[in-house]
Design a protein that fits this description.
There is one protein chain. The protein has 310 residues and is an alpha+beta fold. It folds into two domains: 10-126, 2-Layer Sandwich (D-amino Acid Aminotransferase, Chain A, domain 1); 136-294, D-amino Acid Aminotransferase, subunit A, domain 2 (D-amino Acid Aminotransferase, Chain A, domain 2). It is built from eight helices and 17 strands. Strands 8, 9, 10, 11, 12, 13, 14, 15 and 16 form a nine-stranded mixed sheet that branches. Strand 4 and strand 5 form a beta hairpin. The protein is globular, with a radius of gyration of 19 Å.
Length: 310
């Protein structure tokens, strides 16, 4: 679901809060020409106990790991970036929002080798509803197996959340939308199920949860890891394995997870109804638990929620 930016408020840019309209970089920044940037997608939730950021530490840890993979040294500590994120939420007077921290090689010279380019950093926040549409949370999503394959780990470090990597996701998403589907499902280069353009994927068969293993070219999602932990704590068996598209289409249930998508059921894949085209029982139970965590109603998982006020 696409929501227009308001163009109002402030953005944190290289250590300073600037007006939204003034958050600019030079047209010759390295990151623009070569996709040499890393980023995170994070959510802040409004609860009866205050505003909380979901798994902020884990997101920042992944961002710094991603930067290291491209020999990019972010010129701020994790604590400084954490405070920049909280400060951006506070200065914009938001209690629920999507958070986009980004670091990229800036303006110095062009050429594939970014050595010598400064690293620019920014944090933007904005209100954002359900990425796949409000109806997807209940009614589910119509999906198609993409004609594009997920990038292979021998070509790019797939566990890294880098700007240029998402050209792969853009192609899959454009193809799915052009063919009338709500979302794509990418296979890896061996033909096994990998993930959605911006989501991890799970399936349920006879009460057991399955999700593609790390070797299936997946980005190890933070929401994915959270759902795995929740499900195990609730007594479900989780199996990480190679999954064929035939197995996925024969599943009793299937769903996406991700920061933007949160947790959304899949009702159809290329005309094959999953679970009769309705949200399944296991998906419903896990989804209810997951949203209770996000709403700060599960004391056991308050460790995942970082207060904005601190």
């Amino acid at each position: 679901m696409v929501e227009a930016f308001t163009g109002e408020g402030k953005i944190w840019l290289n250590g300073t809060f600037v007006e939204w309209k003034d958050a600019k970089v030079h047209v010759l920044v390295h990151g623009l020409h070569y996709g040499s940037g890393v980023f995170e997608g994070i959510r802040c939730y409004a609860t009866e106990k205050g505003a909380f950021i979901f798994r902020l530490k884990e997101h920042l840890d992944r961002m710094y790991r991603s930067a290291a993979a491209y020999q990019m040294e972010i010129p701020y500590t994790r604590d400084e970036m954490s405070e920049a994120i909280k400060g951006t939420i506070r200065i914009n007077k938001l209690d629920a929002c999507y958070i986009r921290p980004i670091a990229f090689f800036g303006y110095h010279h062009l050429g594939l080798n970014p050595t010598g380019c400064p690293v620019d950093c920014a944090v933007a926040v904005w209100p954002w509803g359900a990425y796949l549409g409000e109806e997807a949370s209940e009614g589910g999503i119509r999906c198609t197996i993409s004609l594009w394959r997920r990038i292979d780990p021998t070509t790019l470090p797939v566990t890294v959340k880098a700007v240029g990597h998402y050209l792969n996701s853009i192609l899959a998403s454009l193809d799915a939308k052009a063919r009338g589907f709500g979302e794509a499902i990418l296979l890896d280069t061996r033909g096994y199920v990998a993930e959605g353009p911006g989501e991890n994927i799970f399936m349920v068969k006879e009460g057991v949860l399955y999700t593609p293993e790390a070797e299936s070219s997946i980005l190890p999602g933070i929401t994915r890891a959270s759902v795995i932990e929740l499900a195990r704590d609730m007594g479900y068996t989780i199996v990480e394995k190679r999954i064929t598209k035939e197995e996925l289409c024969a599943a009793d249930e299937a769903f996406f997870t991700g920061t933007a998508a949160e947790m959304a059921p899949i009702r159809e894949i290329d005309g094959v109804l999953i679970g009769g085209g309705k949200k399944g029982a296991v998906t419903s139970v896990l989804q209810k638990k997951f949203f209770a965590v996000l709403e700060a109603r599960e004391p056991q998982y308050m460790k995942w929620l970082e207060p904005v006020s601190h």
